[in-house]
Amino acid sequence: MTEAAHTGWQRLAIIAGGGEVPLLIAQGEKGAGRSPFIVEVTGFADQDYSAYDRSAFPVTKIGGMQKAMREAGCDAVCFIGRITRPDFKSLMGLDTAAMTLLPKITQAARYGDDALMRVIIDSFENKGLRAIGADQALSSLVPEAGTLGAIQPDAAAMADIEKALSIARAIGAHDIGQGAVVANGLVLAVEAQEGTDRMLARVAELPDDIRGRAEGRLGVLAKTPKPQQERRIDLPTIGLHTIDGVSRAGLAGIAIHAGNALIPRMDETIAAADAAGIFIYAARADE
Fold first, then answer.
1. Which helix (H) or strand (E) holds 259?
2. b/e burial code for range 170-187 (CB count within 10 A of at least 16 → b)
3. Sheet with 12-16, side-by-side order of all strands
């Protein structure tokens, strides 16, 4: 899946954190006949970008990134991939742009990651770099509504989906996380700063009588954007690692929101879910 959803930019800069989604977007741009510019975030980018025009900067060098993008002729930027939130106040080596933003960053950080990212995004847009989301850059990452594989959720699973999505929205409203696990109406876990994979590992350690197992799967992982989510960054993502974690936790399936989640290598992820006996359900916006 390499079709890029081009909506007006001439050259896209990709600020690449960890994971494969930045590389998939780069491949989509290249497949569409465009030449992306990769900014590898030092210490986080973990894919091979040697086939692309690229540069590397630590997260503290915001001004350096912006200058490199302008010199490369970029008019749009996509922030994508795993980056641990830094403590800017304790970091050495802030460049002039980062130092100028520091008071705003410090203030915004009190209100959560989304407020913090809006400050950073605004700084790039003020330099003439239009910020776009991964869903805009590569539409094939975004699921449509309905059951995505061969496994259908039953009535009990649909009830768990409804509750898990509700819980995920509730914690998201407080900028806690994006995910929750519910089995037979019982909340088994909510996601905080540890992330989805570690949350699922916690569920796998729970007693069998409150969660499912391979021979009798039970319960749902739900992931949904926070109500105040900055859609141009950090949409909920599921992939092969998620399928593995859900399988180890004995869960029956995964619920996301159609149009509001990313699934890298969607065909492979759906096939892996089918093989494990796990459903993937993309709920409508009103569910």
1. none
2. ebbeebbbbbbbbbeeee
3. 53-57, 37-41, 12-16, 76-80, 130-132
3-class DSSP state of 107: helix
pLDDT value of position 87 = 57
Please check the confidence at residue 270 and state whether its pLDDT lies above 50: yes
Two structure tokens written together for 262: 């990313």
CA distance linking residue 182 with residue 246, whole number of Å: 12
Residue pair 62/100 in contact by the 8 Å Cβ criterion: no
Select from 142, 270, 72 the least CA-distant residue to 279. 270
**Residues 88 and 142: beta-carbon distance below 8 Å:** no
For residue range 203-238, list pLDDT tens digits in order.
999 998 898 888 899 999 999 988 766 667 778 899
Residues 36, 15: Cα–Cα separation, whole Å:
11
- Are 223 and 236 in contact by the 8 Å Cβ rule? The answer is yes
Query: For residues 5 and 136, is the Cβ–Cβ distance under 8 A?
Result: yes
* For residue 70, pLDDT beyond 90: yes
Nearest to 242 by CA among 276, 213, 282, 287: 276
* C-alpha distances out from residue 266 to 48, 128, 142, Å: 21, 33, 9
pLDDT at 79 over 70: yes
Q: Give the predicted TM-score (pTM) of the model.
A: 0.84
How many residues are recorded in the chain?
287
Distance CA(206)–CA(212), nearest Å, equals: 10
